């Protein structure tokens, strides 16, 4: 079926399996009546159901809560929180500020982009371990050719979130999956060559979510609220201060080394 035929087939209607609403009557969410069957559902449980089309085990839902709670840093200096704070300082709407911060959370090196790449490589590594392939050769080749996302961290290579969330996963019986084992195996291979490349939070939560049987696409949607709870307090605090006083930068604080100041000659135009 070519492009025009495909578009015509879908023109004027929405074909969906995820749900629909009938104002004044009811709403269906993934085949369930939202207000009669899901009205008292945990929000994260509902969020996951919407993405993957099935409900996770309660222990897995609790682990997702822990993953999000333990990275909720209300620090306005962090790249995405800074945007939310600046939005509050300039009196932008709360919604626009948070959405802008969430958009920046997809940063390729240290945000969502890094997590997606970590997830993909952990799948490859876990499959290699399962097949009995040479994991060390795979890891070192990847590290030397590109980089292995999920390892290494600016400022301090120790990630304080890992022991906390790993302990919670252990109490829930969710710390023995193949992707988590692969994540630690990768770290053991990397450290003798690059001592600074300790596992960071991206590798940990990518591994834990991969061990729930979810896909890269599922993971990308699941991790959207990861930093959300840390943004709102930054925006609220900035909005409570006088406008423009969050991270103000005077002209004297800008170091400029470009083209020197020039005098512009006004050109006369013919009458």
Number of strands: 3
User: Which series of helices and strands comes N to C?
Assistant: HEEEHHHHHHHHHHHH
The amount of beta strand, in percent, is: under 5%
* CATH fold category name of the largest domain: Cytochrome p450-Terp, domain 2
CATH domain class name of the largest domain: Mainly Alpha
Number of domains: 3
* Ends apart, CA distance between termini: 63 Å
What is the radius of gyration?
24 Å
Mean of the pLDDT scores?
92
Q: What percent of residues adopt helix (DSSP H or I)?
A: 40-55%
Largest sheet: 3 strands, antiparallel
Shape-level CATH architecture of the largest domain: Orthogonal Bundle
Low-confidence runs: none
Assign the structural class, choosing from mainly alpha, mainly beta, alpha/beta, alpha+beta, or little secondary structure.
mainly alpha
Strand order of the largest sheet: 1-2-3
* Total of helices: 13
Sum up the overall morphology in one term: globular
Protein name: Citryl-CoA lyase
InterPro entries: Citrate_synth-like_lrg_a-sub, Citrate_synth-like_sm_a-sub, Citrate_synthase_sf
GO biological process, one term: tricarboxylic acid cycle
GO molecular function, one term: lyase activity
């Amino acid at each position: 079926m070519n492009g025009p035929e495909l578009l015509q087939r879908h023109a004027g209607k929405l074909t969906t399996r995820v749900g629909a609403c009938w104002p004044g009557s009811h709403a269906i969410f993934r085949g369930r009546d939202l207000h009669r069957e899901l009205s008292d559902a945990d929000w994260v449980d509902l969020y996951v159901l919407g993405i993957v089309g099935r409900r996770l085990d309660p222990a897995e839902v609790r682990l997702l809560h822990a993953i999000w709670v333990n990275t909720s840093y209300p620090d306005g200096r962090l790249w995405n929180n800074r945007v939310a704070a600046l939005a509050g300082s300039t009196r932008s709407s709360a919604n626009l500020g948070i959405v802008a911060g969430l958009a920046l959370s997809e940063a390729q090196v240290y945000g969502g982009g890094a997590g997606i790449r970590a997830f993909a490589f952990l799948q490859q590594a876990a499959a290699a371990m399962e097949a009995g392939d040479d994991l060390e050769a795979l890891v070192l080749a990847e590290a030397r050719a590109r980089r292995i996302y999920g390892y290494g961290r600016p400022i301090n290579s120790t990630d304080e979130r890992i022991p906390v969330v790993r302990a919670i996963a252990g109490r829930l019986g969710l710390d023995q999956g193949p992707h988590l084992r692969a994540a630690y195996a990768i770290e053991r291979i990397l450290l003798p060559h690059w001592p600074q490349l300790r596992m960071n939070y991206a590798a940990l939560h990518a591994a834990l979510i991969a061990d729930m049987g979810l896909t890269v696409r599922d993971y990308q949607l699941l991790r959207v609220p990861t930093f959300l709870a840390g943004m709102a307090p930054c925006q609220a605090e900035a909005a409570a201060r006088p406008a423009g006083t969050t991270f103000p930068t005077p002209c004297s604080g800008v170091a400029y080394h470009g083209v020197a100041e020039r005098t512009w000659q006004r050109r006369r135009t013919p009458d």
